[in-house]
Design a protein that fits this description.
Strand content of chain B: 25-35%
Structural class of chain A: mainly alpha
Number of helices of chain B: 16
Helix content of chain B: 25-40%
Largest sheet of chain A: none
Distance between the termini of chain A: 75 Å
Oligomer: heterodimer
Shape of chain B: elongated
Radius of gyration of chain A: 25 Å
Number of strands of chain A: 0
């Protein structure tokens, strides 16, 4: 690679490294399971009727 | 393409490399499927279509990870170079695997709906939160990048674009990788909960990042160490490369110009020359090359250049810029800063007949004296190392695949009877969605909700509505929700006693009042078992298309004990509410409405304005 490409390559990974890890952290911290916090109502079922 | 170009130049090593890749992919898919089928069995089995998407997708991700690791590994240790030799084939095969993953996703999740596949892909993720980020668009953008790279991975394009532009274009792989990481993080990781899966995924990203940072650090240190001292002499600028006698025979050494560009200073026999340090093929580091057959040979793919004039030997026509060289009074080699036009012959420095054979360099390089050229036979030790390294990479990929497969979340338990052998007798009713109300032996009622074969619903024959019929179809059941796929037949049920018909007609609607429920809106067909898993963000596109196509939408809540309850969503006038609730599919929502108990059915009559994302 040319000097410019090698320099760009190094800079790119210096930027990409924290960016990727931040991206994963954001995705993991922000995830919400739709089932969490559910509030089912006690309705009679076939078994309980 | 010009007739002057040969499509692919194969050799035995390339055949072996590709055969191992394809064999490895087959092994990966087999391991992933076997582990999945062993872990999730019976009513928890994952639908084959989803299994295929996951197997090919995870295989593509791990192939990309391996591809990205090979470059820095070879920069850190030249013995990995044989694995880089055929990396373009690796890349193209990776693209085929990734494209097959995309084909399956588009063919199942984004197809058979009321809008086109492309419309579905572009519009189904309208909200940008972690739980509903447009992860499919990230994947699509990455695939377009990989398509461009695969399409230009031929020597024709290298020649057309030139090494510099071609390499710059192919550095887009890093953007593609970032998009793939986002695709997985905002896609699969939003549904999967196993810490093992998260750890395995993060470990692969950390590995790629760490190897690139280590290689970058080493490259920076190497550049700094190779900077020569500039000297003005006879009206031109020269750079000192150190004692000429210290250059090892038939080796090259890096010399860094003040501009940062690298030169390759080459000693062939007792003659030393200097040429541009970047190979005209793919920009390989010629300073790490060796002299073979009198030519400086690139360590990446074995392209050759004559040291004195920078020209490739006939019939090849590649040329490198050259630099004039001379010795100073102390026997140090001086290289002129100004480059000569590519292919210009420059008089080499000739050392005395008794010149040392580069003891200093030889000592440095003794430990790694083997030099790999892909089209020549490999030494036994290099072959052993390559085999061990390749096998280790393959074993790691298979192990990670097994971890991914074993860590998959259960899709929930459902019953599937897809032999079209189910016949049910009951009352045919149209609202809020087409269904069959049946009478159980114990006097209770059951509801069979209808769905079409694809992402649509069936049209009920008007003359049969409100009458007793026999309906046929595939039966899916989950948590008390029963679906009849491909519902049809509707022959008049002559054997249903009149009192039973009366009872079916007189099922009361019990108003349980206003409620606010939190849960997930799903399409009842996939949830009930047609697509397992039929819930979660990864299934969102399919759920939205199903609901838009007429499949009854259902709100699913999960109690602290894991027990699921479902509520059929209807309008306040007890009609369909598909279009209004479709945008909320597969997301955490809170729904307010009036709960009606009708037989075994929970109907939640909602005003769509009262639905909000959590």
């Amino acid at each position: 690679m040319t000097h410019g490409q090698r320099t760009a390559h190094r800079l790119l990974w210096l930027v990409l490294a924290p960016l990727l890890l931040l991206l994963i952290a954001a995705a993991l911290l922000g995830r919400t399971d739709p089932a969490e916090g559910s509030t089912p109502v006690a309705v009679p079922t076939r078994e309980t009727r | 393409m010009s007739h002057a170009f040969v499509t692919v130049q194969w050799n035995r090593r390339k055949y072996a490399y590709d055969a191992m890749l394809i064999g490895g992919i087959a092994a990966y898919l087999a391991v992933f499927e076997a582990v999945t089928r062993a872990v999730l069995t019976g009513p928890q089995a994952i639908t084959p279509e989803v299994l295929g998407m996951r197997a090919w997708g995870s295989c593509a991700f791990l192939m990309l990870t391996a591809i990205l690791c090979l470059g820095p590994l070879a920069r850190l240790n030249a013995r990995f170079l044989p694995l880089v030799y055929n990396r373009r084939h690796f890349g193209v095969i990776f693209f085929v695997v990734a494209a097959n993953h995309a084909r399956q996703v588009l063919g199942f999740y984004h197809a058979y709906g009321p809008v086109s596949t492309i419309d579905s892909l572009l519009t189904n993720d309208a909200v940008f939160t972690a739980a509903s980020a447009p992860f499919q668009l990230f994947g699509a953008a990455a695939l377009i990048i990989f398509l461009v790279m695969a399409a230009t991975s031929h020597d024709f394009w290298q020649k057309l674009l030139g090494a510099r532009q071609w390499k710059s274009l192919h550095m887009l792989v890093y953007a593609g990788y970032a998009l793939v990481v986002a695709h997985v993080a905002f896609g699969a990781l939003q549904f999967e909960t196993s810490p093992w899966l998260v750890v395995a995924f993060v470990a692969t990203v950390v590995l790629v990042v760490t190897l690139h940072l280590l290689a970058a650090r080493r490259s920076t240190a190497s550049d700094r160490a190779g900077v020569g001292q500039v000297i003005e002499l006879d009206g031109s600028s020269w750079i000192s490369a150190g004692p000429a006698a210290a250059f090892a025979v038939d080796r090259a050494r890096r010399l860094v110009m003040p501009t940062g560009e690298n030169l390759a200073v080459v000693r062939h026999g007792n003659q030393i020359s200097a040429v541009h340090g970047v190979c005209a093929h793919q920009g390989g580091p010629l300073a790490e090359g060796r002299v073979r057959n009198g030519c400086l040979t690139c360590p990446w793919h074995g392209w050759e250049y004559r040291p004195a004039d920078g020209q490739s030997p006939p019939p090849f026509t590649e040329k490198l810029p050259t630099h004039r060289v001379r010795l100073d009074a102390a026997g140090h080699l001086l290289v002129e800063l100004t480059a000569q036009p590519a292919g210009t012959a420059c008089e080499p420095v000739t050392l005395g007949a008794n010149a040392a054979s580069g003891a200093a360099d030889a000592a440095v390089s003794a430990a790694s004296d083997e030099f790999f050229v892909g089209y020549l036979s490999m030494s036994r030790s290099a072959a052993r190392f390559s085999l061990a390294a390749g096998s280790s990479v393959a074993a790691a990929v298979l192990l990670l695949g097994a971890v991914f497969a074993a860590s998959q979340r259960t899709p929930g338990e459902s019953l599937q009877n897809a032999d079209y052998g189910v016949r049910r007798t009951g009352l045919l009713l149209p609202s809020p969605y087409p269904h069959l109300r049946t009478l159980n032996a114990d006097g209770t009622f059951s509801t069979l909700i209808f769905t079409g074969w694809t992402k649509s619903n069936v049209d009920l024959p008007a003359t049969k509505i409100g009458h007793a019929v026999v309906a046929t179809g595939n039966l899916y059941e989950r948590a008390g929700l029963s679906m009849l796929e491909g519902a049809g037949g509707f022959d008049a049920a002559t054997d249903l006693p009149a009192p039973d018909v009366e009872r079916l007609l007189s099922v009361p609607s019990e108003d349980l009042g206003e409620v606010a429920l939190r849960g997930e809106i799903v399409d009842s067909k996939c949830y009930a078992g047609r697509m397992r898993p039929g819930v979660g963000h990864g299934h969102r596109a399919c759920a939205e298309l199903c609901i838009r196509g007429g499949i009854p939408p259902v709100l699913v809540t999960t109690g602290p004990d894991g027990r699921e309850t479902h509520y059929l969503l209807a309008s306040t006038a007890d009609g369909p509410v598909n279009e209004a609730v479709a945008p909320f599919a597969a997301e955490p929502v809170e729904v307010r409405g009036r709960l009606i108990r009708r037989g075994d059915l929970n109907v939640l009559q909602v005003d769509p304005a009262e639905i909000r994302r959590r």
